[in-house]
Design goal:
Four copies of one chain form a homotetramer. Chain A folds into two domains: 47 residues, Homeodomain-like (Arc Repressor Mutant, subunit A, Orthogonal Bundle), CATH 1.10.10.60; 108 residues, Tetracycline Repressor, domain 2 (Orthogonal Bundle), CATH 1.10.357.10. Chain A contains nine helices and no strands. The relative contact order of chain A is 0.13. The interface between A and B is large, with 47 and 47 residues.
Chain lengths: 177, 177, 177, 177
DNA sequence: TGTTAACCGAGACGGTACGTCAGGTCTTGGA
DNA sequence: TCCAAGACCTGACGTACCGTCTCGGTTAACA
């Protein structure tokens, strides 16, 4: 529901009411309850329908994997610099914290498109010798998403240099050279 | 306020009402409003007063840094395996997503005790040759906390082997050996 | 609203709360506020709907006017001897003291049925030579109602002999014989 | 308490709170509760202390009793024409309707000063042949006060001609000449 | 084309919690 | 020692939304 997404972006999840959604959509409250059982369920469907924008696709395959990831992360962080997007994602976070079902939907929706794609990219890169072997795409995604989420909630800087730092640390590792 | 912390742990942040806090604390509602302006402000004070338990201290200095971090992470993840603690942290997350002021308090309270301690440990470790140089403690903390948070919200596994995987990846990095 | 009338009779106007009315009527508070703007407005509607009982009709026409009035007054005072009725009327008084609109409704509702009836009776009686001419029915009603009200508020005796005393004084006047 | 009288005059009885009285008088709330048990009790004392204006004393003895009463009633009604006084008396009425104790105090304070005085005047007048004998001062006072109260609550006219009508009816009686 | 059924906006309903106000009691710190 | 100042518990206020439940008016399918 477009009205829902817009209202969450405008006001934040907590401040959006079902009545306000109904009013904004020029729809009766009952019509909403006919299809969804809760506010978070509406959001879950917004996500499934792709109404909530997620970070863009990975850059094309022929790139260096490190550059690929850096650009992707830069794009994702950049999207979060937009106040409405940030507000929306914080709303989703709030909703997911309260509702395990929504959390599951959100998790799958967020990771699915990336997991297979990134897994393939990492594998190819490993074959090209750009990476060491034995790396789990899920772990990488988890770490990157977790970091974005943490910065988002902490209202930390989302500037472009941040992406480079993170990828640098991720690639080089902490161990001695 | 102890009543607040307990209720958030029991019911989740959203389901806690100011009235229920007042009733649990055998206190008038007005007394709460006299001292705090919102539910999240109470939570912020709970955090500042140390009523909300955070993961335990780092292990003793003489350990290998990698083992130190692994154990610390294992402990932190283990704490999140307790449903009440997990519920409390999810509540804090939800509150922080809605209230920038609380987010700031929470962020500072969470990172302060670790930042200096971990920074020192990392520095010593680097001197002992266990780490490469130029590593930002803040970045490490951010990545670890972000990962914990992400797993918590996604209801992912918090088992002990997870800590090892993460530290392994973090130390080795993604780059080719 | 029957619940309102009963509660006012039981507890007195000041001690009746909108919440208690809502609870007694098994109704949400908002439903009451949707239809009435204040407690006194509810009472005004009770009066207009005839839910509040007023003293009975005048006795039949063929009576002597003095006996008629005496009996009517005795009946009215007798009704006030019932604690619930007395409490209800005191409640109306309290409400009327606070709310001019209610006072108007109450005044009209109280006097209307009597004014025309008593006026006609007085006129007939004057024609029969039982009364001197030039008497205003409104003034008589005002004096009788005022006296009842005063006795009611002062918790003075409402016994049957009182009616006779009052009518005696009213008919004979204070002047020398 | 002067502060009370002023506040009642300014705001009306209903809108005056004990807290506002305390604040205006630069006095602690407890000090007020030490001496009075309720807002209406304070007002009762205000009346007793003559801070609240009540109808003036009867005119001097050498007047004709009928003129005396007419002037007294005119004065009383005139005082009620002042919105502040009327509001105050309505407040007392409301309080008396709810609180039998206050009603008693108020009744005694209101009638006492008049009863003995009017009783004596009526007796003298009867001796001078201005009145018929056997008249109860209490009944006269009750009727006059009742009428004033009724007009006050009904928001009826308090103009000077009203006094004359009432006294005329009271003296002449309803019976045939 | 006219009748009927499903749908849906609008919004009233019984509720819960909100944040505020005032009541009456209890504690305290300065005169 | 007294008392203003004001925190405290209580309970009612009037409002915002909740999720449920009728209402009419419109639309679409069938007669």
């Amino acid at each position: 529901m477009i009205a829902t997404r817009d209202l969450v972006a405008e006001l934040g999840y907590e401040r959006v009411t079902i009545e306000s959604i109904a009013a904004r959509a020029h729809v009766g409250k009952q019509t909403i309850y006919r299809w969804w059982s809760s506010k978070s369920a509406i959001l879950a469907d917004c996500i499934l329908d792709g109404l909530v924008l997620l970070p863009q696709e990975l850059p094309p395959e022929n790139d260096d994997i490190r550059i690929s990831l850096t650009e992707w992360l830069r794009g994702a962080l950049g999207a979060m610099a937009d106040p409405d997007s940030a507000s929306l994602i914080r709303g989703l976070t709030s909703a997911a914290a309260d509702d395990p079902d929504l959390a599951l939907v959100l998790y799958e929706r967020l990771t699915e498109p990336y997991e297979s794609s990134i897994a393939a990219r990492l594998e190819e890169a490993a074959e090209r010798g750009e990476l060491r072997s034995g790396i789990s795409a899920a772990d990488v995604i988890e770490m990157l998403f977790g970091t974005i989420l943490y910065r988002l909630l902490s209202r930390l800087d989302m500037g472009p240099h941040v992406a480079e730092n993170i990828i640098e640390m991720l690639f080089s590792g902490l161990g001695p050279t």
